[in-house]
Design a protein that fits this description.
Belongs to the SEC15 family. Keywords: Exocytosis, Transport. It is built from 30 helices and two strands. The protein is mostly helical.
Length: about 800
């Protein structure tokens, strides 16, 4: 191997061809060096190969093959050079092989034993690793749970609050959950579910709170009458207390009431004070407040909930709208409310309860209702209340019910005035109710007066003893010195109805005064109201009853005479009624604008009506007697005595005028004169009756006898006070007419006709003509003047002549 190396290294001697070859080899050697170096771009190197000379590619390939062979030879040489070392190395490796296998066995055994020994350690290590992982997970879990637990606790708290219906606190919890707790753990699914569920819970709370509010509204609608009843009772107790204090302190002014129903009582309204004013048994009720009677928590809760949810305005609008609807329902009365006082009381209790609740809500909440809203509700309610009371009070015909209504209106107004509501229009309404009350009183007293008149015996009151006299005088202010001097038994001029009427007028004044109580009016106003109502009683009711009584057919002359006497005494008692009213009101009659009683004119009118009725009934009675007259108008001679009917009539007139002795003189004289004139006129009409065709001289003589009896009656002064023959002048027309026919003094009549001092001045030509023609017809029928005596024929001619002259006088008067 070494020899070969030496021989290969020896070069051959150079030649020119060798030089060229060397140069070419050098060029290609550079090319191969460049290719082998891979540093220069191959494109340039290869281009130089192909572009330098023709057949360069061929030569390059040859050189390349040569270079490859050289490299193969070098490789072979290198392998040959290192072959022995390789063989030695292989030999050494083979020697080491056995040791390696032995070592491998030892290592394997050691590894096995090591693996066996490390299995337990590995297991323990894995357990430690697992525990460390668990510990790390637990620490992470604890850390995360520390973030989640507050969220869960708050959510659990939220659920508890919802369950216990503490919705306002629940909303606050929701707000904390959303803003504080959930953002910390928002990556967890349960928090997302919570966050998505909170808006639903809010809506659920809104719905529940609104449902509670509706229940509340329904509850206060049902309990408003109880609230109102309590408020009114407290107002009554307070007014009683003020009245007691005022009487004790001598005060007569009115203090505005204060109540504790809304929890805003003044300091002096203590429980002890109320117990003095009211019943001690009701002490527990006296301190009741609106909260005691109505649970307002749904309103507060709902208001706070909607405020937190930012929807307060919606809640306020809903609440006000619903309360307006309830107000309209409360103000709607029952159809039969006017029938009983309980109907009015329930109506007022409901209204008071409604506005007490509104007043409490106004002061207990901020802005849920405003003063403007409550004022609007009150004004609407006030108009409705006034209209309702006007309508229903007009149906009342019981004064006691109207009085109860007035008392209810007063305490109703006082109660609401204590809560700051204006009530002046209610007191104005009371004046209208007062008129209605007076009307019902007048109707009631009209029945009382009629009953008194129907049960009266229309005869003077008999008094047997002094005690009876004192009883009558205590009921009626009667004073007569002459009667007082008389011994018992004696009679008072008026009948039993007079003290009864007087007492009933006083009762009416008391009844009218009851309405004026608690109206907060001055004594002067109360005095004026009493006098006006009393005037209505006298001028309208009592006057109407007297007029109707006088016109009744069963009331005779005796009763009419007693009525005149009664009205005279009642007229005299009017000044005592004035004093009675003055004592009640303590208002002097001399006060300016004080109304006077019109009783004088009332009783005067009634007395005049009675007097006129006396005249009428006398005339009617006279007409009844006249209708009994039965003259034989064709009789030849008179009976020589007056007719029976006329004597009966005169006897009747005498007895009647004896009753008139208690009447005022002018009344009796007027009645007597009227009766005589009517009798004279009736007798004259009997002579001139158109149905009477014939009258004989005998009938004239008989008629003359009757007229003589009338004149005798007139001259007997049946009623004292007539001067001379004044009463006889009532028959002067008849007397002159009868004298003319009895004496047959036609020449004198015709000669003196028209003269102021004529003997037959009161004889009218037409009257004389009518009577003369009746007598002329009689003479023709009997043919007395034409068949027998000559003087009778002359008389017939005279009659005809007189008839002609009378006709000319009558025609002259008509022309």
């Amino acid at each position: 191997m070494d020899t070969h190396r030496v021989h290969a290294a020896l070069p051959e001697p150079p030649s020119q061809q060798d030089e060229e070859k060397k140069g070419e080899d050098k060029v290609f050697g550079n090319i191969f060096a460049e290719l082998e170096s891979m540093e220069l771009p191959l494109g340039t190197t290869l281009r130089s190969i192909y572009d330098d000379q023709p057949n360069a590619h061929k030569r390059f390939m040859e050189k390349l093959d040569t270079r490859i062979r050289n490299h193969d030879r070098e490789i072979e040489k290198m392998c040959n050079f290192h072959h022995q070392g390789f063989v030695d190395a292989i030999t050494e490796l083979l020697k080491v092989r056995a040791d390696a296998e032995k070592l491998m066995g030892q290592v394997t055994d050691t590894n096995r034993r090591l693996q066996e020994a490390g299995n337990e350690v590995t297991a323990q290590t894995e357990e430690v690793i697992r525990c460390r992982i668990q510990q790390r997970n637990m620490a992470t879990t604890v850390e995360k749970l520390q973030l989640c637990i507050p969220v869960l606790e708050m959510y659990s708290k939220l659920k508890e609050q919802l369950t216990s219906k503490r919705y306002y606190a629940a909303l606050k919890t929701m707000e904390q959950l959303e803003k504080v707790y959930i953002p910390r753990v928002s990556q967890y699914r349960f928090c997302q579910i919570m966050a998505e569920n909170l808006p639903k819970l809010r809506e659920e709370i809104k719905d529940i709170s609104m449902s509670d509010l509706k229940d509340f509204l329904e509850s206060i609608r049902k309990h408003s009458d109880k609230v109102g009843e309590t408020a009114i009772r407290q107002a009554q107790q307070h007014r009683t207390f003020l009245s007691t204090v005022a009487k004790q302190a001598g005060l007569d002014h009115y203090t505005k009431p204060v109540y504790s129903l809304n929890g805003r009582a003044h300091s002096h309204m203590s429980n002890g004070v109320l117990m003095e004013a009211g019943d001690e048994e009701d002490a527990e009720d006296e301190i009741l407040t609106a909260q005691d009677l109505v649970d307002f928590s749904p309103v507060y809760r709902c208001l706070h909930i909607y405020t937190v949810l930012g929807d307060r305005e919606t809640f306020e609008n809903y609440y006000r709208k619903q309360r307006k609807k309830q107000a309209r329902l409360v103000l709607q009365p029952q159809a039969n409310m006017h029938e009983t006082v309980e109907g009015y009381r329930r109506y007022f209790n409901q209204i008071v309860g409604f506005f007490v609740v509104e007043d409490h809500v106004l002061h207990a909440t901020q802005g849920l209702v405003t003063r403007a809203f409550t004022d609007e509700l009150w004004n609407m309610a006030l108009s409705k209340i006034i209209a309702v009371l006007r309508t229903h009070s007009s149906y009342c015909d019981d004064p006691d019910l109207v009085l109860e209504l007035k008392n209810l209106i007063v305490i109703f107004a006082d109660t609401l005035q204590g809560y700051g509501f204006p009530v002046s229009r209610l007191f104005d309404l009371l004046f209208e109710v007062r008129d209605q009350y007076n009307e019902t009183l007048l109707k009631k007293w009209a029945l009382v007066f009629r009953e008194i008149f129907e049960t009266d015996n229309y005869s003077p009151i008999p008094v047997e003893t002094e005690e009876e006299y004192k009883v009558v005088v205590s009921r009626f202010p009667f004073h007569d010195a002459e009667i007082e001097k008389q011994s018992f038994p004696k009679k008072l001029p008026m009948s039993q109805s007079v003290p009864q009427i007087y007492s009933q007028v006083k009762e009416f004044i008391y009844a009218s005064l009851k309405f004026s109580e608690s109206l907060h009016r001055s004594s002067t106003e109360i005095d004026d109201m009493l006098r006006k109502s009393t005037n209505l009683l006298l001028t309208r009711t009592l006057s109407s009853c007297l007029q109707n009584l006088i016109k009744k057919p069963h009331i005779g002359l005796t009763e009419l005479v007693q009525i005149i006497i009664n009205t005279t005494h009642l007229e005299q008692a009017c000044r005592y009624l004035e004093e009675f009213i003055t004592n009640i009101t303590n208002v002097s009659p001399e006060t300016v604008h004080t109304t006077r009683l019109y009783g004088l004119s009332t009783f005067k009118d009634a007395r005049h009506a009675a007097e006129g009725e006396i005249y009428t009934k006398l005339n009617q009675k006279i007409d009844e007697f006249i209708q009994l007259a039965d003259y034989e108008w064709c009789m030849a001679e008179s009976d020589g005595r007056a007719s029976g009917y006329l004597m009966d009539l005169i006897n009747f007139l005498r007895s009647t005028f004896q009753v008139f002795t208690h009447l005022p003189g002018k009344v009796a004289q007027t009645a007597c004169m009227s009766a005589c004139k009517h009798l004279s006129t009736s007798l004259m009409q009997m002579l001139l009756d158109s149905e009477l065709k014939q009258i004989s001289m005998g009938a004239i003589q008989q008629f003359n006898l009757d007229v003589i009896q009338c004149e005798l009656f007139a001259s007997s002064e049946p009623v004292p006070g007539f001067q001379g023959d004044t009463l006889q002048l009532a028959f002067i027309d008849l007397r002159q007419l009868l004298d003319l026919f009895m004496v047959w003094d036609w020449s004198t009549y015709l000669a003196d006709y028209g003269q102021p001092n004529s003997k037959y001045l009161r004889v009218n030509p037409a009257t004389a003509l009518a009577l003369l023609e009746k007598m002329k017809d009689t003479s023709k029928k009997n043919n007395i003047f034409s068949q027998f005596r000559k003087n009778d024929r002359d008389k017939q001619k005279l009659v005809e002549t007189v008839v002609k002259q009378l006709r000319s006088l009558v025609n002259g008067m008509s022309s």
